[in-house]
Amino acid sequence: MKIIVNSIFVEDQDKALEFYSETLGFKVKQDVPVGEFRWLTLVSPHDQEGPELLLEPNNHPAAKDYQKKIFDDGIPATMFGVEDVHKEYKQLKERGVKFMMEPTEMGEVTVAVFDDTCGNFIQIIQK
Q1: Contact, 40 vs 21, CB < 8 A?
Q2: Considering only CA atoms, which of 121, 85, 76 is closest in space to residue 105?
Q3: pLDDT digit string (tens) for 20-38?
Q4: DSSP β-bridge partners for residue 7
Q5: Residue 15 is part of which domain span?
Q6: Which of 36, 68, 92, 112 is most enclosed, with most CB atoms within 10 A?
Q7: Which CATH number goes with the domain that contains 98?
Q8: Is the pTM of this model over 0.85?
Q9: Which uninterrupted H or E stretch holds 48?
């Protein structure tokens, strides 16, 4: 068994697509119309056959509540691995990304947290 798709709730799929592709650099893997929404997944440009990130519309009340509650509590919705968190932090800051937590050492890892502009905090981690 392996992870093939992981989803993240977003307020607006088009806005999320712009942020995750243009700002973060992920590549569109699937973009299929499904009613009023899309099955919209992205992958890392470094592992295009790897796990997909599904930009899931938060139109269900439970999804909206969940997303809002973890955001209000400052809990990251997901985590992305990076080779150099300080370098990634600097590059993303230059692209206008708003960080809630600067790179911080926590034991054997260094983490930083940013706002994806789509209702989520995202954590980046360097092991």
Answers
A1: no
A2: 85
A3: 999 999 999 999 999 999 9
A4: 54
A5: 5-126
A6: 112
A7: 3.10.180.10
A8: yes
A9: none
